[in-house]
Amino acid sequence: METMIKIQNLEFTYGKQKILDNVNVDFPESKLSIVMGKNGSGKSTIFNVIAGLEKKYQGNVFIGNEERKKIKIGSSILRIGFLTQFHQTTFPFKVFDVVMTGRSSFSRFSPKKEDFEIVEQLLAKFNLWHLKDKAYTSLSGGERQLVLLCRVLVQNPDILMLDEPTNHLDLHYQVLVLETLKDLVQQGKTVLCVMHDPNLAFMYGDSFFMMKNRQLIDLKNYNQDEIQSILQETYELPLISLSHQGKTLYVPDLKR
């Protein structure tokens, strides 16, 4: 299994508070890797470092064979798409136009027929076509999340990074998004997700990582009982394990 992203001795500090401490981990190529952990544990920080939004770190972050700090916009042979957890806009851009901005690097702000077709196909896939002329600012939180996901997907990235992609979505769209990500992996894309729900993670993911004590734990090195223990310690909940379609899931022990 080839490594797409390699992190070596990564440390990151906000002011005097250390967020990441000696993180060493490999994210495999053409797999759906999922990072879990409690709120405020450093999941979004490590994503921001990989995406190039945070540069004041110690250690090394390699994407392909390039160190992240040395990669300039448009210079890498690998295209990275990134969906942040929070997004604010005060301008009432139409939904179609918001998604079309994802194609701007290909069309030089002069969209071609192919760009319009790609945007239309994605809006239709996520049942958003009827909203194409609505103002983005008038949408619900779930609708905005799907529109922003489409904006990233139209970029056709080699590496897709999603911070809480199922946030604000009902179960139907959570499954649709995760099935779409699995399809992209089958096409050779490398996908990294931050997710809160461990069971959706274990149902759809290929590789699993847990943020704990400012470090990122690769769960492939642990057996089922050890993983359950890590989950219980992380989320501070007693859990029981269940088998479902060949997957091991973990749910709260209601008897407690």
Summarize the structure.
The chain is of the alpha/beta class. The chain is 31% helix and 29% strand.
Q: Can you give keywords for this protein?
A:
alpha/beta, Rossmann fold, four-stranded antiparallel sheet, 12 strands
Question: Your description of this structure?
Answer:
The protein is an alpha/beta fold and about 260 residues long. The protein folds into two domains: about 5-80 and about 155-250, Rossmann fold; about 90-155, no CATH class. It has helices at about 45-50, 95-100, 105, 115-125, 140-155, 170-185, 200-205, 225-235; strands spanning about 5-15, 15-30, 30-35, 60-65, 65, 80-85, 160-165, 190-195, 205-210, 215-220, 240-245, 245-250. The chain has a six-stranded mixed beta sheet, with helices on both faces. It has a four-stranded antiparallel beta sheet with strand order 2-1-4-5, covered by helices on one side. It has a two-stranded antiparallel ribbon with strand order 11-12. The termini are far apart. The model has no long low-confidence stretch (mean pLDDT about 90).
